[in-house]
Design a protein that fits this description.
This protein has 15 helices and 20 strands. The protein starts with 5 loop residues before the first strand and ends in a 5-residue tail after the last strand. The protein is globular. Helices cover about 30% and strands about 15% of the residues. Helix 13 packs parallel to helix 15.
């Protein structure tokens, strides 16, 4: 029986912040669009990440869309750092307001997307064994959506329950009460989950590979007057975020950590610590470029750990010694304080590595731990991982994975496009500011640039747009040059792919800042999409 194949102007993968706005914008421009989402509802990362303590680390009044002033003023956040349920409610509110669900197909995973050179269309194969085609193929899969579940020996034999923070049960409340719980990993999700689980568990054992620098979030309910002022200042806040370095309207530092004396420097750090949030990260101009400057903030945080954690041996295990800020900066609620609880213990798996999961728990080289529940807070295959999980093939049948050499030679143009992959756009792809910015700001910038580009092509009757190889090489070279001038490339992290066994190392984030990046993208568009090959054909 012959299957009728549906044809669209654009196909978008993912119904998170990226996919929802991309759908809205293209639909407003008159295109036929279909979004495919693997989950049961909208939300993207906030649909899947339901682990205890899941919370945003950007302040809520800045962690939202700004394309609509009406939308901004209709929604009211409750606290400084919103929890996962509130962010998910916000994204559902957006989907309802703009009637987006009618063009989203849920519970559907895109298995492959292949470019048909003859017809200049993308053929997308879905996991329900149907195909659709589109002129434009747009990925909104997110930078952190491919969960990294370690393949520990014996995991299939475990008699208890195990969970990954990135794939938390949606229709079940995980009960830790009185149970022996082991959590593996102390990155951002682990740091958020550990204090919450510790309040419920009978015994919580934390298995730590690398200690983390973390600062208190100091979360609090918003004062109604603060919300009123934020809404009244919408236009100025939007402008400041879009012109800033990190996508938030903060005043950038003007002095080096080495230009001030110890007393003055520590006062600035102390004020940032008391205020909470990511203030330490932006306290001075040179914390991520000068080793000596970086050591001043690193030592300050280590001194705080020593003050907070009562057991000096545990405190030593918790003290990090990599360059502060070169792994994801973390903010927390009572993370270090949790290690003062009598039901919490810490295992250093660098010195006593995990050997296997056993039927009754977990075995390290030197010890065995009986556990009822294991939580993997082991992060994600970031940046390229979500894209390389999909079989994406461009011209001549070359896959994106082959082009990027499995991550060893990731190369893009602006983090938006790839040579050899016509009419394909990535929202916050590798080599864009992405995860080192306030994500909604970077997502909006990409969505608007892509939508404007497609409108330009349609107006000029241009059928094909493809990144020029030389422009792509130059952009990647520029990204590496900017990164190498910092301390980021000197630390193993998920930014560099170091958390995934066998993944080639490479720093895949543009560090020039949101404002500078936006200006570059605008210049390219103003110059007729400089660095792209534009082709009109006889086939329409």
């Amino acid at each position: 029986m012959k299957t009728n194949i549906q044809h669209f102007d654009a196909i978008v993968i993912g119904a998170g912040f990226s996919g929802l706005y991309m759908l809205h914008r293209l639909r407003e421009d008159g295109l036929s669009v279909r979004v495919y989402e693997a989950g049961e509802g909208v939300g993207g990362t906030w649909f899947w990440n339901r682990y205890p303590g899941a919370r945003c680390d950007s302040e809520s009044v800045y962690y939202n869309y700004t394309f609509s002033e009406e939308l901004y003023k209709e929604w009211t956040w409750t606290s400084r750092y919103p929890e996962q349920p509130e962010i998910l409610r916000y994204l559902n509110f957006v989907a309802d307001k703009f009637d987006l669900r009618s063009d989203i197909q849920f519970n559907t995973r895109v298995q492959s997307a292949h470019y048909d050179e003859k017809n200049n269309r993308w053929t997308i194969n879905l996991d329900d064994h149907t195909n659709v085609t589109a002129k434009y193929f747009i990925t909104g899969v997110g930078c952190l959506s491919a969960a990294n579940v370690p393949n520990f020996k014996g995991i299939e034999s475990f008699k208890g329950e195990w969970y990954h923070t990135g794939h938390w049960p949606r229709n079940k409340v995980v009960d830790f009460k009185g149970k022996r719980v082991g959590i593996i990993g102390t990155g951002s999700s682990g740091v958020q989950a550990i204090p919450v689980i510790a309040e419920q568990a009978g015994l919580l054992t934390v298995f730590q590979r690398t200690p983390q620098y973390s600062a208190p979030a100091r979360n609090h309910l918003y004062d109604p007057e603060y919300i009123r002022k934020s809404k009244a200042n919408f236009k100025e806040i939007k402008k400041q975020m879009r012109e800033s370095t990190g996508g938030q309207p903060v005043v950038p530092p003007t002095q080096s950590a080495l230009e001030v004396n110890l007393i003055e420097r520590n006062k600035i750090y102390e004020d940032s610590w008391k205020n909470g949030g990511l203030g330490l990260f932006g306290a001075f101009t040179d914390l991520t470029i000068d080793e000596r400057a970086n050591e001043t903030v690193a030592e300050f945080i280590r001194s705080k750990i020593s003050e907070i954690v009562h057991d000096s041996e545990v405190a030593k295990k918790l003290m990090p010694y990599y360059y502060y800020g070169t792994k994801r900066p973390i903010i927390d609620t009572n993370y270090y304080e949790t290690y003062n609880r009598g039901n919490v213990s810490l295992v250093d798996v660098k010195n006593d590595s995990i050997e296997s999961i056993t039927p009754n728990g977990l075995k390290t080289i030197n010890n065995e731990y009986e556990l009822d529940v294991v939580v993997f807070a082991t992060g994600y295959d970031g940046m390229t991982g979500p894209l390389m999980k999909i079989d994406i093939k461009g011209k001549d049948g070359i896959s994106l994975k082959e082009k990027w050499d499995g991550g060893a030679q990731t190369r893009t143009y602006l983090g938006i496009a790839n040579a050899g992959f016509p009419n394909m756009f990535m929202i916050t792809g590798p080599e864009s500011p992405s995860v080192l910015s306030n994500m909604p700001v970077s997502i909006e910038q990409h969505v608007e640039w892509i939508a404007d580009c497609i409108q330009f092509l349609r107006t000029k009757e241009i059928d094909i747009i493809e990144a020029n190889v030389d422009a792509e090489i130059e952009w990647s070279r520029h990204c590496r040059e900017v990164a190498e001038a910092t301390l980021f490339t000197k630390t193993d992290s998920w930014y560099t792919g170091a958390n995934i066994k066998g993944k080639p190392r490479g720093f895949q984030i543009y560090l020039g800042g949101v404002g500078a990046y936006r200006k570059k993208c605008d210049e390219i568009a103003t110059n007729g999409y400089e660095g792209f090959v534009l082709t009109s054909t006889a086939v329409h």
